[in-house]
Design goal:
Layout: H1 7-19, H2 21-33, H3 44-54
Helix pairs in contact: 1-2, 2-3
Length: 70
């Protein structure tokens, strides 16, 4: 199943991104990896590797459409 961010997710992501961009992108990665029950079976080291592989710049805004402000 493909993760499609809804309005609530985008709002939460944007709020977190303003405070801590890296944490917002980890949040996005976890949502993409989660199963139907919302669990992720990965170690901290695996998450670090996946974060580096998934995002060219882990501190950049990653949702489609980019940022309309700032």
């Amino acid at each position: 199943m493909t993760f499609t961010p809804n309005r609530k997710f985008r709002r939460d992501y944007d709020r977190l991104f303003r405070k801590e961009p890296g944490a917002a992108n980890l949040f996005l990665l976890l949502c993409e990896l989660a199963d139907e029950a919302g669990t992720v079976a990965a170690t901290e080291a695996e998450l670090a590797f996946l974060l580096a592989a998934r995002f060219e710049d882990p501190e950049a805004y990653q949702l489609p459409g980019g940022r309309s402000h700032e």
